[in-house]
Amino acid sequence: MKVGIIGAGNVATHLVKGFLAAGIEVPVVYSRTLASAQELANLSPSTKATASLNFQELPHADVYLIAVPDQALPELVPQFKFPEGVVVAHTSGTQPLEILQALSKGSAGVFYPVQTFSKEKEVDWRRVPICVEGSSPEAEETLLKLGQRQSDQVVVMAGPARRQLHLAAVFACNFTNHLWGIAQEVLQQAHLPASLLEPLVEETMRKAFLFPPFQVQTGPAQRGDTSTLEAHLKLLENLPQYQELYKTLTTSIQAAAKKK
Q: What region holds the Putative oxidoreductase/dehydrogenase Rossmann-like domain (predicted)?
């Protein structure tokens, strides 16, 4: 199976690396900027870089994966020209499969890897869940087989469930990472190293994987420790945006405790 990659950002970069490592040929990589496409194409001597939207005139692939920002999909999709009989899928957690209906030839699908990707950090693709969806049984089977070449957890998932999963992922990943960034900023103001909190964060995540998180919640909000909460809010007076976030999270924790 040969896979063409459309995009040159974080997701596209890891897809190319993952496919090549799995022995899957990547004949073509597209980016609006030819230099960005060429950077990825340099990973394999048989990969061609392109800034053309006409894939009918480029090395053939069996599957084309569109790994571009969600907001770019509606504008880009109608401009593509793909060969007949291919499967074209996007990698978005939120965009519906139907956004690819503008493609007049071939089958459409979704190939959504549930992971955070940064070019600077390698990932173990065997541990990355991949959600697939196809406009036909044949397209779905093709995407399933492709995913199984990379991952030990590949599931067929319709759009509504995939969007719920993506929402949950934002809370679990993006918001958690942001809170860790805030914690580091608070430490920096006191000239304290982040290493002091690393064991705490590691244990928190280990425990959250073993037990229902709301049931093992700790801290001043959970205890109703008003004096500590007020002291923390006072320390955040010079960071009003974080002070408001502290209040919101405190209220959420206390509401969850009452529900439990």
A: 1-105
Cα separation values, 154 from 26, 130, 145, 147, Å: 21, 5, 9, 6
CB 128 within 8 A of CB 104: no
- How many Cβ atoms are within 10 Å of 212's Cβ, its own excluded? 9
Q: What are the beta bridge partners of residue 87? A: 63, 107
Tokens of 47: 């990969």
Give the count of beta carbons closer than 10 Å to the beta carbon of residue 210.
9
**pLDDT (tens digit, 9 = 90+) per residue, 185-203?**
999 999 999 999 999 999 9
Q: What is the pLDDT of residue 259?
A: 86
The domains found in the chain, sorted by start residue, are: 3-157 (3.40.50.720), 162-259 (1.10.1040.20)
Q: Who contacts 92 (Cβ-Cβ below 8 Å, separation ≥6)?
A: 70, 73, 110, 112
Residue 50 — very low, low, confident or very high, per pLDDT cuts 50/70/90?
very high
Does residue 222 contact residue 251 with C-beta atoms inside 8 Å? no
